[in-house]
Amino acid sequence: MSSAAQNLEGNQAKPFIAEPVVTTHEDPVDGLSWLLCQLTLELPVPHFTIADLLALREGSIVETASHHTSDVPLRVNKLLVGWTEFEAVGDRLAVRITEQI
Fold it and tell me: Could you list the mean pLDDT of each consecutive 10-residue stretch along the chain, which spans 101 residues?
């Protein structure tokens, strides 16, 4: 008898029993809540030149192409994640998220 046949005959291995697969529905991002990211809002300013940039001083006002009720793109690390609108909260300017992507 071959050695392979002898091993098969003398093998007292336990039968294979499949164990249930445990899956978790946790979002892997939940473990990264401490990770810093950059949140940015984009306001289009048409016809803005380098001369305009150099002329900026404290108290300067820059006119944007957005109406005060227009939705403004919200980005996290340059990735578009939603749309916002500006809102006054007391003496501060805030944004309200109007749509999440």
Answer: 55 70 73 89 91 96 84 94 92 92 92
